[in-house]
């Protein structure tokens, strides 16, 4: 090292430089911790929302116990079981297709009415009044030995109601 470098401190780390680098390191470590927490949170949420194979099949009850023209809320699922006048079954999502609000069944009006923006849906889930852009989503229904079972893993989007969407005995 030359005399000039020794006199002027060239090649040595000053306290100011050391503290600046320390703060940068601590800031990056803090950002990395927040990123790790965010990834962990989102990963856990995604796993929680994915039903296990055994949990996604919901046994609703004996098919004969549901009267035609009725709607039954299913607490352990996120759907209503609608028994159509012709005897067919539909599992309708509780989620409005407009903005995702929970849509209750109004027994007096015989309609699903969204409390958020006033969309209404028929017994088959068809849009009667907007702003909902499409009918309520459905879930797969099957009847095994007279027992109604619904696969609530994946809702099925549809653009309108068709008679073949209803499952019959």
Structural overview:
With 169 residues, the chain is of the alpha+beta class. The chain has two domains: 12-43; 57-165, Rieske Iron-sulfur Protein (3-layer Sandwich), CATH 2.102.10. The protein is built from three helices and ten strands; from the N terminus they run H-H-H-E-E-E-E-E-E-E-E-E-E. Strands 1-10-9-4-3-2 form a six-stranded antiparallel sheet. Strands 5-6-7-8 form a four-stranded antiparallel sheet, with no helix packed on it. The termini are far apart. It holds the Pfam family Rieske.
Summarize the structure.
The chain has 169 residues and is α+β, with helices and mostly antiparallel strands. It contains three helices and ten strands.
Largest sheet: 6 strands, antiparallel
Shape: elongated
Enumerate how many helices there are, as a single number.
3
For the secondary structure, the number of strands is: 10
Q: Compute the gyration radius: what is it?
A: 29 Å
Overall helicity: 25-40%
CATH class of the largest domain: Mainly Beta
Mean pLDDT: 83
CATH fold category name of the largest domain:
Rieske Iron-sulfur Protein
Distance between the termini: 94 Å
The CATH superfamily of the largest domain is known as Rieske [2Fe-2S] iron-sulphur domain
Structural class: alpha+beta
What's the SSE pattern?
A: HHHEEEEEEEEEE
Tell me which CATH architecture of the largest domain applies here: 3-layer Sandwich
The low-pLDDT segments are: none
Classify the beta-strand content into a percent band. Answer: 25-35%
Order of strands in the sheet with most strands:
1-10-9-4-3-2
Q: Please tell me the total number of domains.
A: 2
